[in-house]
Amino acid sequence: MSLGGGKGGVGKTFLSSNLSAVLARSGKRVVAIDTDLEGANLHTWLGVAPPARSLADYVAGRETDVQGLPVETPIPGLKLITGTHGHLSMPQPDAETRARLLADLRGLNCDVVLIDCGAGAHPATVDYFLAGDDALIVLHPEPTSIENGYSFLRAAFYRRMELVMRKGDVRSLVREAMDQRNALGIRTPHDLLREVEAMDPEEGRRFREEMGGFRPRIVVNEVASAEDVKLGFQVRMVCRRFFGMDAEYTGYVNRDEAVREAVNLRRPVTDIRPQSDAAVYVRRIARKLLEAMP
Amino acid sequence: MKSLSEMTHYEVLEVGRETEGADLERAYRMARAAFAEDGLASYEACPPEEAAAMRERIELAYRVLSDPDARQGYDATLGSTPDDAVPIEFGLDPASDEDIAPPEVEPEIAGFDDLEDAEDVAFDGARLRRARLRHGFDIERIAQVTKINPTYLRLIEEEEFEDLPASVYVRGFVSAFARCVGLDAERVVPAYMDRFLAARPPAAGGRRGQAHASRQA
Question: What is the SS3 assignment for A165?
Fold first, then answer.
């Protein structure tokens, strides 16, 4: 499971820490992983001191086995791979290391791996996001977050299509389309679909299938009004129309002072203030995720 | 994924062939909000001309579908394959389309399951607000239905007990509020009033204060 959203500060790490805590408390063996090598702080949200080993050691080749990375957290059943101690001049691993990491994560001895993607739409961030069987995009009810959210979804969409297209010329077409000012006049996923279909009907069919299969979940964080709540439904409509994606609006979280209180104590709000608004909303999202799990 | 010109009016508004009346109206409002020029939901989602084209189609779709004669004529052009007319490919979540619990829930808000856990969650101001948001109601809407000053409703949600009137009024407000958002007033009111009276002991004023004083006497 992965959490992304483009913009920093929208609550990806808040949600990652609390969802992983709730899932662990519900009996799942969870490993949360912080892939933000530049500004990792999932450990702080969970009350774990920066540990001796982290994802950065794996990226730098100091640690070759991902099994050796998870450390215990104060929450039973929840382990954590932090992203701290990054090599500042090489913040993200190359594509090959990423692919190996993501494959290795599937081999971890647990029920759920929850990937907290960093901010931005770096190819590495997008790959982490796409690695999730379930991918949540976290939005704030404000234009900056919506804008970054769409550019993140767009990047994820094109990247996913690039990965599933089999023919070299189609793949390079998809890559070219990623440039919003490309010379081919491809401005939207729909334009791209048309081009792919014209180029190769079989790839076109695969493209259509894949579009339908990409179902990110939307979470709106810090809602303050009924309008904010409805935003998720509207975003879902826009995604369907312009990205051909059947996104699901999985939930929202109310703006709640208890969250600040909890982070100051370095504990999940679902643990220290289980009756708070934020905790109730997070549990509802977790329930939906649990229902979707095998 | 269809191009805009291939979409039916039903697909544009994301409604079924049977949708009409208030449901159609709501679907139209939702679609209009989603693609509004100065709206948040489609901000930077697509080239502006695409969004403009979508807005035009939404208006046209609503004009046709909300006019029985025009709609009948339009249906005739669609032929007798209603299955093709509903957006199957990227269709509505079947659970969110119809069997939507209580009638006051706006369809677009449904699809969310029950908010509260089985575990015992207090009937506090936040609980009232969650129930309200779940129905997609803003404070003003509750105020309209209950005829309660929106400021009081807000104070009840925020549990700003000091600024609320005497408990006898608050009791009535909370009861109306709870019923309006589909909560059981008989459970909510006693629990809420316990919180209210704990924070604002009866001595602080009103008839309760007098009762308290006479008990001490």
Answer: coil
